[in-house]
Here is the input.
Amino acid sequence: MSFLDYFKSKKNTRTASVAKERLQIIVAHERGQRDQPDYLPQLQQELLAVIRKYVQISDDMVQVEVDRTDSHSVLELNVTLPEH
Amino acid sequence: MGKTTTSASISTGLAKLGHKTVVIDFDVGLRNLDLIMNCERRVVYDFVNVIQGEASLNQALIKDKRVETLYILPASQTREKEALTKEGVEKVINELSERFDYIVCDSPAGIEHGALMALYYADEAIVVTNPEVSSVRDSDRILGILQSKSRRAEMGQDPVKEHLLLTRYNPDRVEKGEMLSVADVEEILAIPLLGVIPESQIVLNASNQGVPVILEEESDAGQAYEDAVARLLGEEREHRFMSSQKKGFFSRMFKGG
Here is the structure.
């Protein structure tokens, strides 16, 4: 390792903060999915199939989520249609 | 990640304090607790033999040679993982709970059947994590399973009590910003901290010889496990070995410590 490399490599070693940030994002995302009912992925696929009979959309244009509160649950359905 | 090392040390620590303790290896097919506890040549019958009625508990339990009140129930090496049934595990655990104060279940890695069986009947869980991204993420998934798939969760009882044990911790590297800190991991997983085990050559030396690290009483890792056991039993102890020790000139010269 040359004298200059020593200074260069120092910059890239403080990676703990990157690790923490990435973990916070992925863990929050996975916790959100964990509480969702098992049937959601299939529901999303079937909704996609129905909508595709009429409009061509890609997989990520149908979002299905369940929001639970103490007294009730809300099934939230977001369909994005392509621009004309 | 240190689950088996930790199971060996926690169970030895509990037994050393006079509690009747048994430690069960749930890693069917990849048994290793026997090796870590130095009783690999004394295994005759195993956990699956007991479940399937081919041996009695007394025949399968191995008495530890160092600590009076400690017993080991080894895993089977040859059987299919599915040999551990919920009913079978329950029967064995019920029988053990009549004779022992503490039953330590050493879980296999992953979230498959063996891990599920190890956590299903748990009252408390020690989640062993390394300060490393994949380990922390896996720990969060296991916490999710504890909260939804354990018997306590299924029966709607009080949740399994969760503890975080951080192993292979290197304070020097944390200070340089190269490794996640205790605070980082605590913040992400949001469960109470049971202990921090410093990364140490002693841990490898101990497992090489089949000695639970906690019996290396002079070592920092051994003392850290001892603290963790005390905290598990409800004692309040300050956390140690979490900051780097500044080495003197001579110890640095001779790579001591």
